[in-house]
Design brief:
Number of domains: 2
Number of strands: 0
Helix content: over 70%
Distance between the termini: 56 Å
Organism: Rhizopogon vesiculosus
Order of helices and strands: HHHHHHHHHHH
Number of helices: 11
Shape: elongated
CATH topology of the largest domain: Serine Threonine Protein Phosphatase 5, Tetratricopeptide repeat
Protein name: TPR-like protein
CATH class of the largest domain: Mainly Alpha
Radius of gyration: 20 Å
CATH superfamily of the largest domain: Tetratricopeptide repeat domain
Strand content: under 5%
Largest sheet: none
Structural class: mainly alpha
CATH architecture of the largest domain: Alpha Horseshoe
């Protein structure tokens, strides 16, 4: 992998500003550096990847066939840096009020919010390039929703959570029963609804979350890698409803 990075750096030096292939080599080097970061965990690789993705995006103006790809990769790289400098927020379960408070304080102390704000803006721009019927629309909807939930966790602004729920609903609506992403869309919407129940106490949110967890569990038969997670999330929802009633 280190050799690949060196080769791509050399190729990029041969593509000065104005070269028709410069955006592609910027993008390729950024992708390779991000992959190396995932293997080695050195944040400087991720920082450089973000800078290169920015440079590639600047060469892919509105209307460019690869603009949505650059938006997506820059956004997900920023989200990854946000998670690395705080604590990973890819929570596949509802959060308690204590966890929300802890995470919010931690991110305020570490000052990593600009990455998340920018990631949200980029996800919005990417979604605008995925109109209804686009093959990547459900992915784009879920990415934006996930980032908004992350921001809710550390800022506590309920409008972010409300929007995340609306986006997860929209993503689920374009994932028919045979769609490979349907189970994750069911889980995402259920978890976010449970989060809102924890904040507002509306039993309708909790009831819907339980129904969605049951639907997700039906797609995770015995032996499925996510079955234990589905069982745990459903149990948490049922426990919350038992406590309330």
């Amino acid at each position: 992998m280190a050799q690949n990075v060196d080769i791509l750096r050399m190729v990029l030096r041969m593509c000065p500003p104005g070269h028709p292939s410069r955006s592609s080599f910027l993008y390729n080097l950024a992708t390779c550096l991000r992959d190396r970061f995932k293997h080695r965990g050195i944040l400087s690789d991720l920082d450089e990847a973000i800078d290169l993705h920015r440079a590639a995006l600047a060469l892919r103006p509105p209307g460019h066939s690869l603009r949505s790809l650059s938006l997506y990769n820059l956004a997900t790289s920023l989200q990854e840096r946000f998670n690395q400098r705080g604590v990973c927020l890819t929570w596949m379960r509802p959060l308690t009020s204590i966890e929300l408070h802890f995470l919010g304080d931690r991110f305020k102390q570490r000052g990593v919010l600009p990455d998340l704000d920018e990631a949200i803006d980029l996800h919005r721009a990417a979604l605008a390039l995925c109109p209804p019927g686009h093959s990547d629309r459900s992915l784009s909807l879920n990415n934006l929703a996930t980032s908004l939930r992350d921001r809710f966790i550390q800022r506590g602004v309920l409008s972010d959570l409300d929007e995340a729920i609306d986006l997860h609903r929209a993503a689920l609506a374009v994932c028919p029963h045979s769609h490979s992403d349907r189970s994750s869309s069911l889980q995402n919407l259920a978890i976010t609804l449970h989060d809102r129940f924890m904040q507002r106490g509306a039993l309708s949110d909790l009831d819907e979350a339980i129904d969605l967890h049951q639907a997700a569990l039906a797609l995770h038969p015995p032996g499925h890698s996510l079955r234990s997670l589905s069982l745990s999330n459903l149990a948490a929802g049922l426990q919350s409803r038992f406590t309330q009633r």
